[in-house]
Design goal:
heterodimer, A: 239 residues, alpha/beta, 6-stranded mixed beta sheet, 4-stranded antiparallel beta sheet, 11 helices, 39% helix, B: 288 residues, mainly alpha, two-stranded antiparallel ribbon, 76% helix
Chain lengths: 239, 288
């Protein structure tokens, strides 16, 4: 645990106009970790990921990636540094083919040279995408669309993948498959920070977790410790 | 049989006329499709292209169609600069802000053209602009046919560019899902500037063919802007093929309307078609 953090969020406050949604929030993710963000609806988890991705800038505090401050950078610069977000609702390009969706994942100049290699990796994890590469993205099933969204993220040659609610609206068996893929992706030295509503699942899949309520971290620790934590049991497992 | 013979002139003229409408509307449609901006300055930008070609024609004796070798790149750069320096900052402010800037640009261009060229009616009076030919009994002015060919070529080039090139795909991606594009590292400001630039290059082409077909004044752009709105409402905003066919629909509505109800009613019929299209298929006939 003495390793240098890959991503370090320190004391950030984020506003929408005059409405504050994140309050002095800090967290860190170390290389090759799988970290979960847990919290109910409206706890600003998506806002936090968007702030890391540079779609919103914090009013206060700092975010560093590989010790480099990134809180003022725009999203296209942040993608080039190696942070990719697989957003909630997938946000695919519906009328483009599966293959074109993947190609556009490698839009940043650094990823373009790695395109062939990363495409092979994507098809290894999700062979179904290869067999459907000429179909338009909107014709895929929900699970396949989620695979495409993750694949598109992998195409950007990331060091850190932010995953937002990937199991939303999907059948449990597909979620299990996706989490299996996620663990394999993490084996490729890609660090994962994911948001998940299902607390039990989060604490099974993650090494560590942060529990967020109304834009504040209320509890954090290793997944193992949190599973035993009385407050978590009470609030989330109904025990 | 007599009816078919009677209709052949308005049908052929309508389709060819639609070519000019489509040619003018393609740039408007592209900008709307990608940036969701109704560029009310589009007509004036087209006419600015006409005047540019007029200047080349009268001062240097350059053929208007050949002058596009200069005009299209000049308008491309002009379009890029408009988006980059004038519009881009306003996009974050509100939906209305870029619309107001476009409106201001329209007024400035009209008045600038007025100062430079006076309000007198002018034309790109080349030899071939007055040529015509016959198909059977139908008499066709050559510029009408050129308009149609130019529209077809520009439409096919844009379609191919958007669906086959990497930059074109990135533009399509940004128009289909802005958030998705941002998260993939696509810089929307650059995409928008390139899109506006391409739209202005097509406006330069449209400007030349407009000038070969009709006399023009600094305020001509306004009436063609309104027709172009009709075209993209019917055809589907952002769809290049839809815009092309929308042009034909409006051209045909106009000539057939004139044929059946008299010349005074021709634009009325065209706009009634727009209204009907808007009611039945508000997303446009060819929109996804």
């Amino acid at each position: 645990m003495s390793q240098e953090a890959l991503l370090k969020v320190s004391d950030i406050s984020v506003y929408y106009g005059s409405l504050q949604v994140i309050w002095d929030l800090s967290l860190e993710v170390k290389p090759s970790e799988i970290v979960a963000l847990i919290g109910s609806n409206g706890s600003s988890k998506t806002t936090l990921l968007d702030t890391i991705s540079g779609l919103i800038h914090p009013a206060k505090g700092s975010i560093t990636f590989e010790s480099r401050p990134i809180e003022t950078l725009d999203s296209f610069n942040i993608v080039a540094l190696g942070i990719t977000q697989v957003p909630e609702g997938r946000e695919l390009f519906p009328d483009l083919s599966v293959e074109d969706n993947l190609y556009l994942g490698s839009y940043n100049p650094k990823a373009r040279s790695q395109r062939a290699k990363n495409l092979k990796v994507v098809f290894e994890h999700f062979p179904i995408l290869e067999s459907r590469k000429n179909q338009s993205a909107k014709t895929l099933s929900g699970g396949e669309q989620q695979m495409l969204a993750i694949g598109r993220g992998l195409m950007s040659d990331p060091k850190l993948m932010l995953l937002d609610e990937m199991s939303l609206g999907l059948a449990p068996i597909i979620c299990t498959e996706l989490y299996k893929a996620l663990r394999e992706i993490s084996q490729r030295r890609i660090t994962v920070l994911f948001v998940e509503q299902n607390v039990r699942r989060s604490l099974e899949e993650a090494d560590r977790a942060y529990i967020i309520e109304s834009g504040r971290v209320v509890l954090s620790g290793t997944a193992k410790d949190l599973r035993e934590e009385e407050k978590v049991k009470k609030a989330y497992f109904g025990l | 049989m007599e009816l078919i013979y009677d209709l052949s002139t308005p049908v052929i003229m309508g389709i060819l006329m639609g070519g000019l409408y489509a040619l003018i509307a393609l740039g408007l449609s592209l900008v709307f499709g990608v940036m969701k901006l109704i560029n009310v300055a589009h007509g004036d930008l087209v006419v600015t292209g006409t005047y540019f070609s007029y200047a080349c024609f009268t001062i240097m004796g350059l053929d208007p169609i050949l002058s596009l070798i200069l005009g299209a790149p000049v308008m491309f750069v002009f379009g890029y600069a408009i988006q980059k320096f004038l519009m881009s900052r306003s996009f974050g402010v509100s939906m209305e802000a870029p619309l107001i800037i476009a409106f201001g640009l329209s007024l400035v261009l009209q008045n600038l053209n007025q100062v430079l060229w006076t309000p007198l009616s002018r034309g790109l009076t080349t030899d071939y602009a007055f040529k015509s030919f016959n198909i059977g009994e139908v008499y066709i002015p050559l510029p009408y046919l050129l308009n149609f060919i130019a529209a077809l070529v520009v439409m096919l080039v844009l379609r191919t560019f958007l669906s086959k090139t990497y930059l074109g795909k990135a533009i399509s991606a940004a128009s289909q899902n802005k958030r998705g594009a941002l998260l993939m590292g696509i810089n929307p400001n650059r995409i928008y500037a390139v899109t506006f630039a391409i739209a202005m290059a097509t406006a330069a082409v449209a400007g030349v063919f407009l000038g070969l077909t009709f006399p023009f004044t600094p305020t001509t752009g306004v009436s063609f802007l309104i027709i172009s709105f009709g075209v993209i409402v019917v055809g589907g905003m952002g769809s290049m093929l839809g815009t092309f066919i929308g042009g034909m629909v409006l051209g045909l509505a106009q000539t057939l309307g004139g044929h059946f109800f008299g010349d005074a009613a021709q634009m009325l019929v065209a706009y009634l078609i727009v209204l009907v299209a808007l009611t039945i298929r508000p997303q446009g006939l060819f929109s996804r």
